[in-house]
Design goal:
Layout: E1 2-7, E2 11-16, H1 26-41, E3 47-52, H2 75-84, E4 89-93, E5 96-98, H3 100-107, E6 110-114, E7 118-120, H4 134-142, H5 144-153, E8 157-158, H6 159-165, E9 170-172, H7 176-187, H8 208-223, H9 228-241, H10 244-259, H11 262-276, E10 298-302, H12 306-318, E11 321-325, H13 329-350, E12 359-362, E13 373-376, H14 382-395, E14 401-404, H15 411-415, E15 424-429, E16 438-443, H16 449-461, E17 465-470, H17 477-494, H18 498-508, H19 514-521, H20 523-532, E18 548-549, E19 552-553, H21 557-563, H22 590-602, H23 612-633, H24 639-649, H25 659-666, H26 668-681, H27 692-699, H28 708-718
Parallel strand pairs: 2-3, 3-4, 4-6, 5-7, 6-9, 10-11, 10-13, 11-12, 13-14, 14-15, 16-17
Antiparallel strand pairs: 1-2, 7-8, 15-16, 18-19
The structure holds ligand L4473FGL.
Ligand L4473FGL binds near residues 21, 60, 100 and 123.
């Protein structure tokens, strides 16, 4: 909808009305067409202002409409009609002007923005391109390199940057609508020919071919198989090389391919899933909308290793007072220096003052007595964590939330060390904690809804995508990683190389394959866990075959590498070799290849040819199968939670939507059939046995992902 009024005698004021972001739904587009026509035909109106209600200009096309048959007036002719108007039209931009919202503003003759407004063409993040003339008008207005940057990254710019680039004509700190109305009065009757961006020649850089080749190369590398960024470059190239009308044709043609693509569906799913995970629920019925978080002003971090330092930085940058505790003097000094450095670098990047004085450091754990919330981040050792929790229980004032940063340990067991287990939750950060967007908030059976709500809200304040999950070994992310890595090890035993497995996964879109990732995070991390689980020697009972543990197939390859001191990048050797310890450039290692050959020979294994499809099916379907088990167990409330954990924490390519979405795209029947096939071939691998929820979903006709919760509910009610 759009409201029309006449203000200051001669200005037609059109207000977009579609809360919460004034998205350009069919009704809004119809409203704009009608009100523009009305303003242009009213002889008393000399100029027009377009604004949005509730302090936001427009969040772009209505993404919810994309899946359905789009009705109502299309954007392109609507914007052309505005640009062609014989009365000046001014866009008054408050809040956001994004996507179709900015394209609408680019069709206006003038743009005035509030200093706090943000502008951008984020269509690429939804698997699309700005197809309402954005790829053709923006380069004509601000030049090809700047337009390429905004369109291929989708980044939002501040009003100040928009002014500097020439996207807007004026920035105000006061009422944008008042400023726009005044401005509209001042330009009434003035010639408009020079204000119609589509008529501008596109500035043609002298090194056009080199420029586009360079950008295309960069985009291909960072897009990891995403098609929209490539199409964006092609569309802008059309603006730079062809007349406007032909450029618009090219824009339309490219958009037609993107619009119906699986990647666009996946990315749009991610947009909504990212928001849906904040509406958490627990199996006991507690929910985000009925649980009130408690404010947290002062927090403490215990243990200043890599994780503790990152968490301290993230809390301080959020504006909290932080008490950072490390009992070892040397560690404390090193941590203080490292944290200050991280804060200073972050502040420099964001153009703000570093939050150094928000942190006080102490060697004495008693210093945390009066904080609202503690995050324990000591070494991943249950004995040590238990001791810390016992201390915290006696030091902290009543009501203090006690959180543990653990990647796999039993949160409930830690809660039992305190007098108030309802105040205990897990906060599983990902390294580096001040950079990575994911936070798993882990509730135990005794965690109170308020504790969960408080941790979720704190995560949000820290700029994290927080996902509430139940307590089980590995929670969601690491639990699903286990079958994925296990399959990768088995593939090596059967004839693959780390290079082959990694290449298949990287071509799928992961930034790093499983072995390069393992080298980066350190092979000793998994080794320690396997030792703790009694899997790796010497915990395993003597006399059992080397490749069987606890009655199932086991690959000791990772353990054998660790026994050789090959911990990955930090030792300069792992699944690959590196120039020196700490170096990041992985090189193929002939030693590893002959080690694998020797290993196979020792165990009577005959190497066979393994192709990309098998790598993907075995690694990914085993991981997905565990995802279904997690849903079945009620550890994650819905598939969106799992998908966002994988997209934000584990490098799952966003344009593939997350593992559960991907399973739906592949077809649940196909995933089931391939798992059955592999399980028949490897009956000693329980992770390959399709779980009952997958069977049930297939039996109920493979419903779309948004209907899975109904099937899960039914399954739970029958248990
Ligand atoms: C014909 C094809 C043409 C395509 C051109 C396009 O315009 S594509 C769309 C391009 N626009 C965007 O990508 C903007 C998406 N929105 C945002 O980035 C942000 O929502 C915002 C506008 C910056 C506001 O952020 P804020 O944090 O304040 O709010 P939320 O993100 O939580 O959003 C509030 C609710 O509004 C829903 N929503 C937001 N944008 C749209 C949209 N364009 N279409 C439909 N719905 C949108 C969002 O889902 C939230 O809804 P909830 O139900 O509360 O989750």
């Amino acid at each position: 909808m759009a409201k029309y009024s006449r203000v200051s005698g001669s200005v037609g004021l059109i207000t977009l009305q579609n809360p919460p972001v004034n998205a350009l739904s069919a009704a809004v587009r119809q409203g704009i067409v009608d009100t523009v026509e009305r303003a242009l035909s009213d002889p008393k109106v000399k100029s027009v202002v377009i604004c949005g209600q509730n302090g936001i200009f427009c969040g772009g096309a209505d993404i919810k409409e994309f899946g359905s048959n789009m009705s109502g007036p299309p954007l392109v002719p609507m914007i052309h009609a505005i640009e062609a108007a014989n009365k000046p039209v001014v866009a008054a931009i408050e809040g956001s002007a994004l996507g179709g919202g900015l394209e609408l503003a680019l069709g206006c003759h003038y743009r005035i923005a509030h200093s706090k407004a943000r502008l951008g063409l984020p269509e690429v993040t939804l698997g699309l391109l700005p197809a309402a003339g954005g790829t053709q008008r923006l380069p004509r207005l601000i030049g090809v390199p700047a337009a390429l940057d905004l369109i291929t990254t989708g980044r939002h710019v501040t009003a100040a940057e928009a002014l500097q680039l020439g996207v807007v004509d004026q920035v105000t700190d006061h009422s944008t609508v008042d400023a726009a109305v005044k401005f509209a009065q001042s330009v009434a009757g003035k010639p408009l020919d020079a204000r119609r961006i589509s008529t501008y020649p596109c500035p043609r850089p002298s090194d056009l071919d080199a420029l586009f080749e360079g950008v295309m190369e960069k985009v291909r590398q960072s897009a990891r198989g995403a098609i929209a960024p490539v199409a964006c470059v092609q569309a802008v190239r059309a603006a730079a090389t062809q007349p406007y009308t032909q450029g618009m044709e090219r824009e339309k043609e490219l958009m037609a391919t993107l619009f119906t693509s699986g990647q666009a569906r996946a990315l749009q799913y991610c947009f909504f899933a990212q928001r849906a995970v904040s509406r958490w629920s627990m199996p006991n019925g507690a929910r985000w909308d009925t649980s009130k978080p408690r404010p947290v002003h002062k927090a403490a971090v215990i243990g200043l290793g890599t994780m503790g330092r990152g968490i301290t930085v993230a809390l301080a940058q959020t504006g909290l007072s932080v008490i950072a505790v490390e009992t070892q003097e040397k560690q404390l000094m090193e941590a203080k220096q490292a944290v200050s450095g991280m804060l200073e670098r972050g502040a420099k990047r964001r153009g703000v003052a570093p939050a150094l004085d928000r942190i006080s450091y102490s060697r004495d754990i008693q210093a945390v007595a009066d904080v609202d919330l503690v995050i324990e981040a000591v070494f991943e050792d249950m004995g040590l964590k238990k001791k810390v929790f016992q201390q915290l229980a006696s030091i902290c004032r009543p009501g203090t939330f006690l959180c543990t940063n653990t990647s796999a340990l039993d949160v409930d067991h830690l809660a039992s060390q305190t007098h108030n287990p309802e105040l205990v939750v897990g906060m599983h950060f990902f390294a580096p904690a001040h950079v990575m967007k994911l936070l798993e908030v882990v509730y135990g059976p005794r965690s109170s809804p308020q504790a969960v709500a408080t941790a979720m809200q704190l995560g949000k304040k820290m700029g994290k995508i927080s996902v509430a999950v139940g307590n089980c070994p590995g929670f969601v992310g690491n639990r699903m990683l286990k079958p994925y890595m296990e399959q990768a090890f088995f593939l090596l035993e059967e004839g693959a190389t780390p290079e082959l497995v990694d290449r298949a996964l990287e071509e799928f879109g992961f930034p790093m394959g499983v072995f390069r990732m393992s080298d980066l995070s350190g092979l000793d991390v998994g080794w320690r866990v396997r030792k703790g689980d009694g899997l790796s020697e010497p915990g395993a009972p003597s006399g059992q075959p080397a490749r069987i543990r606890q009655g199932r197939r086991y690959s000791p390859l990772g353990d054998l590498l660790c026994e050789q001191g090959r911990f990955g990048q930090k030792t300069g050797r792992g699944w690959y070799q590196y120039n020196k310890p700490g170096s990041r450039v992985a090189r193929s290692d002939p030693w590893l290849h002959s080690f694998l050959e020797g290993y196979r020979a020792r165990h009577g294994l005959v190497a066979r040819r393994i192709d990309n499809q098998e790598v993907l099916e075995r690694c990914l379907y085993a991981l997905i199968n565990e995802g279904f088990r997690i849903l079945e167990d009620g550890i994650a409330a819905g598939p969106e939670d799992i998908d966002m954990i994988y997209v934000f924490g584990y490098g799952w390519p966003r344009h593939r939507g997350g593992p559960m979405f991907y399973a739906g795209m592949v077809g649940l029947g196909k995933v089931l059939e391939r798992l059955e096939h592999y399980h028949q071939a490897h009956p000693d691998v329980p992770y390959l046995k399709p779980c009952s929820l997958l069977w049930r979903l297939v039996a109920s006709g493979s419903p779309p992902l948004h209907k899975w919760r109904e099937v899960i509910k039914k399954l739970h009610s029958q248990l």
